[in-house]
Amino acid sequence: MSEKEKNEATNEEVEPTETTEDIAEETVEELTPEELLQAKVEELEDQFLRARAEIANITNRNRNEREQLQKYRSQDLAKKLFPAMDNLERAMATEVSNEQGASLKKGVEMVLESLRHALKEEGIEEIKASGEAFDPNLHQAVQTIPAGDDVAADTIVEVLQKGYKLHDRVLRPAMVIVAQ
C-alpha cells in the first residue's frame, strides 16, 4: 500500500462518533407525544404495582404478628404464676397431722388444680422430665450423678423444678438432675 492509500484508509476509518448524550437527545426528539405518554403510563403502572405489592406485604406481616401475639398472649402471665404454683406444690408435699391441716391441704390442692386447668386451657403444658432422656432444649441440668445399673446415661433422675411450655415455645425449662 502506498502512503497516499494509507492516509485515505485512515481518514475513512476515523469518523466522528456520536456520544450517548447525542443519541439520547435524538431518541427523545424522535418520540411522539403519544409515545411519551405511553412511557409515562408504563412508569406509573410499575410504581402502582410496586406500591400494591408493598401494601400486601405489610398486611401479611401485620396479620402474622397478630397471630403470633394471639398464640403467645398468655406467656407473661404464666411466667408470673409459676412461682406461686411451685409454692402450692411445696405446700402439698408437707405432711399434716390434724383434720384442720388436712382441710387446709385439700383447699390448696383445689387451688393448684384450678390453676393447672386454666394453664392447660391456654395451651401451657408441663414438660415431662422424670425418667426421660435429657434434652437441653427442654431441661436444665443443675446436677449430675454417676449412672448406675438401673439408670442409663443421659437420663433424668430427679426433677427439682417443673418446666412448662406454651405450644412450641419453652417458657421455663425443667431443672433436673441427670445421670452421667
TrEMBL record:
Extract the InterPro entries matched here: GrpE (IPR000740), GrpE_CC (IPR013805), GrpE_head (IPR009012)
Q: Which gene encodes it?
A: grpE
What does the UniProt function comment say about this protein? Participates actively in the response to hyperosmotic and heat shock by preventing the aggregation of stress-denatured proteins, in association with DnaK and GrpE. It is the nucleotide exchange factor for DnaK and may function as a thermosensor. Unfolded proteins bind initially to DnaJ; upon interaction with the DnaJ-bound protein, DnaK hydrolyzes its bound ATP, resulting in the formation of a stable complex. GrpE releases ADP from DnaK; ATP binding to DnaK triggers the release of the substrate protein, thus completing the reaction cycle.
Q: Which GO terms describe its biological process?
A: protein folding
| Span list, region Disordered | 1-26
Coiled-coil residue windows = 34-75
Name the protein family: Belongs to the GrpE family.
Keyword terms, alphabetized: Chaperone, Coiled coil, Cytoplasm, Stress response
Under PROSITE patterns, the record lists: GRPE
Which is an annotated GO molecular function term of this record?
adenyl-nucleotide exchange factor activity
Q: Acidic residues bias located where?
A: 10-26
Q: Where in the cell is it found?
A: Cytoplasm
Record protein name field: Protein GrpE
Q: Does the UniProt entry include the keyword Cytoplasm?
A: yes
What GO terms fall under cellular component here? cytoplasm
Q: NCBIfam families per the record?
A: PRK14140.1 (NF010738), PRK14156.1 (NF010753), PRK14162.1 (NF010759)
